[in-house]
Amino acid sequence: MRQISIAGLIALGMTFVIIVRGIDLSVGSLLALCGLVGAVIAKGGLVERFSVGANADLLNPWYWALIGSVGIGLLAGALNGLCITKLRVPAFVVTLGGLSAYRGAALIVSDGGPISGFDDAYRWIGQGKIGEVPIPVIIFLVFIILCHIVLRYTVYGRHIYSVGGNPEAARLAGINTDLIITSTYIITGFFVGLSAFILSARLNSAEAVAGMGYELTVIAAVVVGGTSLFGGTGNILGTIIGAILFGVLQNGLVLLNVSSYIQQIIIGIILILAVAFDRFSKSTRQV
Amino acid sequence: MEQADYIVEMNNIYKSFNGVQALKNVSINLKKNEVVGIVGHNGAGKSTLIKILSGAIRKDSGTILINKSPVDLAGPKVARDLGIETIYQDLALAGNLDVTANFFLGNEKSRYFFLKNNSMREEAKRVLQELKIRIESYTVPVDFLSGGQRQAIAIGRAIYNKAKVLVMDEPTAALGIEETRRVGELINQLKKQDVGIFLISHDIHDVFDFCDRIAILKNGEIVEICRSTDVTKDDVISMIIKGAR
């Protein structure tokens, strides 16, 4: 469940993006970048970043790291969204570029090596528990409820679905579609920043290779959860089921001693089947 | 024609797309309780003209007066706030949303950002029932409804938003005979409520049945604007094709 929380948080944001017919391939790379920025801030700057130690005194408290991590996520999300809506570059291309660029930025920040050794308060976010429930799971649950309410019961949520269903109709009805689309990437950026922080707190380390292939897992979870890549349909509960399914699947495959190479093949096949199923059910529904 | 009560005056409108002149010096006006038909070939500029009026695209030059005061129709929202409602050919409904959601699209009732779904559903039901529009379920996506029902929702929405000027782009193109008749009834009903209507149509019969005046467009220019009682269908057809009676 702890494992699921990190990809699951990003999947929440991705659900918004995919409902408005978008896609965000840059989340894995952005995860690495956000985690590293947070870590560098905690260490007090680029020069001191390698002052490794199991429990070194940090120059800045954990919340500055969190703010930095989330801030970079929001910024990158806004950048993605603006490129898509203002430059009219397809989301696939913009975020594919982001996938490369953010990974590169992460490598610059880390200079290739991991940044590790945070204080207790920092690590508590990733490793601590309240009662029997791990902190990441609590954070995940809070945002599940929040996102569900936003999508289902607010005017903003209604506009998200209308932009996904018929962007032209939404625009003619006076809805600022560019703003809605951009906001979904910003939401995703927020969740990437948040989960990047949780991940680095959990591993007590941030590194440039974090989140490799995350975009695939996250998109697969959202799509398997019933959100159509063609936009307009889907909901948070489906995404949660998709995320849990993938978490359980990955865990099960590990326990069954299936090689991680074959796991990747299985994830790929499930993703294709899920989209094929969506296509198939659509074509039979329309008369 | 009395100068007094024009609710829409479009004067000397020009518009070009990538060097192609879509509208050349087009002037047209509309009174309340009046239906003005706009006819012409594909590419004659009909859709461009009404999209300018509904704020979907911007004119290059010319003036637009609504109730005698000049306006700048910068976007669909601006036009809507001035009482100009448009019913588009492709209906402008979001097929994945239900009747209520489409009815209030872009105009949702809310309290602190939260949708007031029940009150919106009641309101939509009331308006559509007043118009004698039958809809079995208000909760299925409108993709599952017939073309006539969807057209009716679009018209109902325009009426609910207290349209003073209604622009209808091919309202009967996708409809059967019975549904076309219903739309005709709605148009007459609206006329009685002091609404002015622009009706874009390919169908000469519809135009003669519904319209008080007919504007013929050819190659982006007005050929003539005439009373529908002063001309024959053949006159109008020859103006559409040849640009003269």
Verbal overview:
The complex is a heterodimer of chains A (287) and B (245). Chain A has helices at 2-19, 27-43, 62-86, 91-110, 120-127, 135-153, 155-165, 167-172, 177-203, 214-224, 236-255, 260-285; strands at 115-116, 129-130, 133-134, 205-206. With 287 residues, chain A is mostly helical. Chain A has one domain (2-211). Chain A has a two-stranded antiparallel ribbon with strand order 1-4. In chain A, helix 2 packs across helix 9 (177-203) and helix 3 (62-86) packs antiparallel against helix 4 (91-110). Chain A starts with a helix and ends with a helix. By secondary structure, chain B is an alpha/beta fold. Helices cover 33% and strands 28% of the residues of chain B. Chain B is built from eight helices and twelve strands. Chain B has helices spanning 46-53, 76-81, 99-103, 117-130, 147-160, 177-192, 204-210, 233-242, and strands spanning 6-17, 20-31, 35-40, 61-66, 69-70, 84-87, 110-111, 114-115, 165-169, 196-200, 213-218, 221-227. Chain B has a six-stranded mixed beta sheet with strand order 6-9-10-3-11-12, sandwiched between helices. In chain B, strand 9 (165-169), helix 6 and strand 10 form a beta-alpha-beta unit. In chain B, helix 5 (147-160) runs parallel beside helix 6. Chain B is globular. Chain B starts with 5 loop residues before the first strand and ends with a helix. Classes of the chains: A mainly alpha (287), B alpha/beta (245).
Protein topology:
The complex is a heterodimer of chains A (287) and B (245).
Chain A lengths: L1 H18 L7 H17 L18 H25 L4 H20 L4 E2 L3 H8 L1 E2 L2 E2 H19 L1 H11 L1 H6 L4 H27 L1 E2 L7 H11 L11 H20 L4 H26 L2
Antiparallel strand pairs in A: 1-4, 2-3
Chain B lengths: L5 E12 L2 E12 L3 E6 L5 H8 L7 E6 L2 E2 L5 H6 L2 E4 L11 H5 L6 E2 L2 E2 L1 H14 L16 H14 L4 E5 L7 H16 L3 E5 L3 H7 L2 E6 L2 E7 L5 H10 L3
Parallel strand pairs in B: 3-10, 3-11, 6-9, 9-10
Antiparallel strand pairs in B: 1-2, 1-4, 4-5, 7-8, 11-12
Helix pairs in contact in B: 5-6
